[in-house]
Amino acid sequence: MDPLNMSQQASAFLSNLATWATVTVPNIVIALIVVLVGWWLAGFAQRRAFRLIEEQPHIDSTLRSIISSLVRYAILTIVLLAALGQVGIQTTSVLTALGAIAIAIGLALQGTLSNIAAGIMLVWLRPFRVGDAIESTSAAGTVRDVGLFATELQTFDGVFVFVPNSELWNSRIKNYTRLPTRMVDLKFGVAYSDDIAKGLAVLRDLGKADTRVAAEPAPVVFVDELADSAVILGLRVWVSTADYWATYRDFLERGKVALEAAGLSIPFPQRDVHLFQTPASPERRAA
Predict the structure, then answer these.
(1) What is the DSSP letter of 118?
(2) CA 75, CA 5: separation in Å to the nearest integer?
(3) What are the pLDDT digits (tens) for 7-28?
(4) What CATH fold (topology level) applies to the domain 181-261?
């Protein structure tokens, strides 16, 4: 091969490479700067949106994580398209490719997408909010955060639980703090020989004397069961949800004390055993 021709080809290649680098490298640097700045901006916008929603009393706190996450992902998408456009890639073809990739990923990650759909439905229908005490078939505790993919709970004994949204959406949920009032349902056992009417009066006075108990519905007392070793007396009162557990525990103790002070006894399970002596058989007497 002619050395002169090779030299000319090498010079042309280096010239083209220099021209390409002169045009492309600055665009790549600018694209990287756009990505870095956009990444920081997305995080800042997410935190800012979270704080703004937190400061608005008319916006449910359950929406904080969902909306702030959507803000972040929207900014990242715009940043990605801007960076690709900066290096000369046609965004229309990228969007088409991303659509095809999204379909493939969606088929592969059906469980993840179901969690997102469940999270949207939980936020839309709001069977619970941040701060509510709930119980489902998979977990129970106080709601700390509702995200796009999962819900964070803190159990009543202080354990962190991470529950996929689809598990909550597909199960029955009990919300213990959603309604303003709850019924305290208590049962006390007294002896069969005790005065039942007196026991009911004691429990009725106990319910009426407590300022935490609502006047309407009024306290209700009744004979709940004739058990093996005791007559079970029932007491039902309505209190605010915040006072439920304190009232429940107080009434357990005070109910026992009041019944015993009135002369009634709270029996423990017992069983009467009767022994019968049978005459010995002739064979045993002969022995």
Answers:
(1) H
(2) 52
(3) 656 566 556 656 655 666 676 7
(4) Alpha-Beta Plaits (3.30.70)
